[in-house]
């Protein structure tokens, strides 16, 4: 991962910093991590200087687990789910029950967001047979989205992980890709601009080495190219990054 250290330090936090963010909840942090109430390590650097990422692991580019004894970084977006789980535990739940409540909260909201978002059928066609929301299929899709976040890949691209941001990211990116591919009603320049601006607001930048192949980062870059409106520079201040 080129320029990994500067990128990771800019957008992610070490475990000690994460513990500061969640305050007294840090006392139960390991219990909640073990029960997958929120994602674990997103990036890790071994004592030899080698990098591991959850996204790379999901794609088969690196081992399934981070290196032992390395320096680990976590997603700040996970703090709110950690805090939510802590509230459940204060109400008498076990860590496992709190994690299950987090998951159910997301899935319930996910189904509702699918019903609200006009472009959702484009991104989640299996959830809309005969143009109507199938709640069973929607629940299955929500479980998959939650799993992808818990396992780490989604934790590199969303500023805040919520059902709303998840559904919107997938739906808006698919609407733009359909436009690029000449599918459906074409977007005029202003409509494309409005949509890509909204999409970008949901996202963390991918690492420099990941952005060219990562969606929706690739969608944002392509839209700006078509509009001839410059480039995003999400790595400003990263030493050595030239905007490749």
List the strand order in the largest sheet: 1-4-2-3
The helix fraction, in percent, is 40-55%
Number of strands: 4
The whole-number mean of residue pLDDT values reads: 88
Main sheet properties: 4 strands, antiparallel
Number of helices: 11
Low-confidence stretches: 236-244
Total individual domains:
2
User: Globular, elongated, flat, extended or rod-shaped: what is the shape?
Assistant: globular
Structural class from helices and strands? mainly alpha
Which range does the strand content fall in? Answer: under 5%
What are the secondary-structure elements, in order, as H or E?
A: HEHHEEHEHHHHHHH
Oligomerization state of this entry? single chain
* Rg (C-alpha, Å): 19 Å
Euclidean distance between termini CA atoms: 13 Å
How would the blueprint of this fold be written?
Layout lengths: L3 H8 L1 E2 H8 L6 H6 L8 E3 L5 E3 H5 L12 E4 L4 H12 L4 H22 L3 H4 L11 H16 L12 H18 L8 H13 L15 H11 L17
Antiparallel strand pairs: 1-4, 2-3, 2-4
Question: How would you describe what is shown here?
Answer:
- The protein starts with a helix and ends in a 17-residue tail after the last helix.
- A 4-stranded antiparallel β-sheet has the order 1-4-2-3.
- The chain folds into 2 domains: 4-82, no CATH class; 94-227, no CATH class.
- α5 (79-90) packs across α6 and α9 packs antiparallel against α10.
- β2 (43-45) and β3 form a beta hairpin.
- By secondary structure, the protein is mostly helical.
- The protein has helices at residues 4-11, 15-22, 29-34, 54-58, 79-90, 95-116, 120-123, 135-150, 163-180, 189-201, 217-227; strands at 13-14, 43-45, 51-53, 71-74.
- The protein is built from 11 helices and 4 strands.
- The model is unreliable at 236-244 (pLDDT under 50).
